[in-house]
Specification:
heterodimer; A: Rossmann fold; Luciferase, domain 3; GMP Synthetase, Chain A, domain 3; 5-stranded parallel beta sheet; 16 helices; B: 77 residues; mainly alpha; 51% helix
Chain lengths: 512, 77
Amino acid sequence: MVSTLANIIDYSAQRFSQKEAFKYLNTAITFKEARYKVNQLVHVLLENGLQKGDCIGIYMERNLESFISVHAILKAGGVFVPLDPTAPTERTLFLLKDCNIKLLLSSPLQYKKLIRLIDKKCSVDLIVGVKKKLPIKQIAWDVIFDTNIEDVNIDVEIDPSDLAYIMYTSGSTGNPKGIMHTHFSGLNYAKQSVDLYQVTDQDRVANFAPLHFDIATFGYFSSPLAGACTIMISDAHTQFPLSLSQLIEAEKISIWYSVPLALIQLLEKGNIAERDFSALRWIKFGGEVFIDKYLKKLVDYLPNVQFCNVYGPAEVNQCTYYHVNTSNIKDPLPIGSVWSNTTFKILTSNNIEVAVGEIGELVVQTITMMKGYWNNEELTNNSLYIDKDQNVFYKTGDLAYQNQDKELVFAGRKDTIVKIRGYRVDLGEIEAILTKHQNIEEAAAIITGKENEKRILAYITLSKEMNKKAIEQLCKQFLPTYAVPSEIRILKSLPRTTSGKISRKQIKKMIF
Amino acid sequence: MKEKILQHIENELVFEKIEEGLDASDDLLGGGIVDSMGMVKLIAFIEDQFEIKVKPEEMLIENFMTVGHIVDFIKTK
C-alpha cells in the first residue's frame, strides 16, 4: 500500500516492473531500474550519515538523476530541498544555511557553480554527482550506480506526518520563505491529481517545470504513482519551441502541464500546425492567467484535447480546477471548483464572508495543504485563517468571486491592487486590456514612485509592429484616466522568474 | 568568431561570473549559463555581428546548445 511518498517507487516497481518510468532525452529507465537506482542512492545516503529529518539539497538541471534523488531522499527519511541552479549564489547560500544542508546532490553540469558555492564557505560537506575534482568530499553518480546493494535492507520508518520537502518562494520581506510539505500533503496531491485527470499506466506525462517549481510534483509523484512514464523536458527544449514541439510529437506525450507561456511559445514558434499531437489528451496549465486570445487559438489547433485551468498556490499544491468548455470559452476563464477534500470561503478584509458575486480574498481548507513555513512560525500564523468552528484555512492572498454558474473566478492578487491618487487600480486589469490587442504579446504593469508621485508603467512585448501612440490610445479607450499608464515601454521579452512567471520584481529594477 | 561570442556571453549575458571561465563546449542551456532572455539577446548579437539572419526554422537546440554549435551554425550561412 502507498501510505507515504516514499512508497511510490516500490509500489510501481511491483506492478509495472518493466514499464518505462522516467525518460530524459535518449535515456529511459523502467520502474524496476528506477527502484534499484533509488535503493543504491538510499544506501549511499545512509552510509554517509543521513539522519531522519535531515534536509538534503538537490542542485541540478532538469535531468534523470533528479528523479532518483527525490525518491531516494524520501525513502531514506530525509527532506528534499530543491535549489535552483540558475539562482544567484547569495540566494542559494541563504537556502543552504536556512535548512542547514550538509549534503548536496548535484550534477557535472553544475561543476563551475559548485566551485563558487564552496568558495563562499557554505555549510555543505559532501557533494554527490560530480566527478571532476572538488575541494570537498564528493561521490560521482557512476560510483553510486555501481554500488552492489543485493543484501542491503532499507529499514527507515516513515510516518505520513513526517516532512517530505521544502520549496522556497520569494517572500515579501526580501528573504525567500520555505513551504513545508509532509508525506501526507504531498501524497494526497498525487492521489487526487491522478484521480482528477484519470492518469493511467498508458500515459506519457511531460514534466516541463523545474523541480523548484511546485507544479513539478505532478511529474515527480502523480505520474509514477499511476505507473505512467514521466518525460523530462530538458532545459534546452524549454527555450526552443520548435525543438519542443518535435519532442512532444516524438514522445507521444499524452498529458502536458506547464505555465501558459510555454504553450504560447509553442503556438507562436513551435510550428504545431505541422505536428502530430494525436496522443495528447490533457493540457493543464496554471501559475498565471492564460491570455484569452492565445487559449482560443490553441483550442482551435487542438480540438481533441481537454484543457484544464489549474489553480493553487504552492502552499496548498492545487485546490481548484476548471475543465475548459472549448465550445464556449469564458473570458475571464474561471478557476472553477474546489477539488476533493477541500472547502473554501471568500472573505472581506474583516473576515466576513461576501455574498455570491462579490469579490474577496479566497481562503481554502484542504488535505493537500502545507505544514507551515520553515523556521517561521509568525509567518505561518499570519497566513492562516481559523473560523469559529476551529477549521484552519490558508489565506491565498488572491482575490476571487463566484460567477452566476457558481464557478470561482480569479480577480487578481491582493497586492496587485494599488491605490493611485485615491483610486483603486488593479494592475492586472491594465495588463488584460493591453494583451487583448492582437499585436501585443505580453504586458506587465507596475507602480513606481512615492505616495504623491505614484505612476503606472506598462512594459509590453509585441508580436507585430505597433507605435506607442496607438497603444496609449488603446489604454485611454478602455481604462479610466487614473489607470492609464503614464509611460509604456516596449521590450524584446519580459524578465521572468525561473518558473516562467513574469517577474515584476525584476521589472521594477529596470526602472531608470 | 568563437572568442568574440564567448566574450560577449561572459561580459554581457551571464548572471554571475563563471568560475574558470566559459568554454566553447559548455552547455549554455542545461548549465543555466544564459536564460531565455539571454538567448534572445545572444541571437540578436550574432545576427548583428556576423551579418546573418537566423530563420525561425533554424531556432533549434542543435544550433545553439554550446558556443561550438553556434560557430558551426554560423559557418553554414
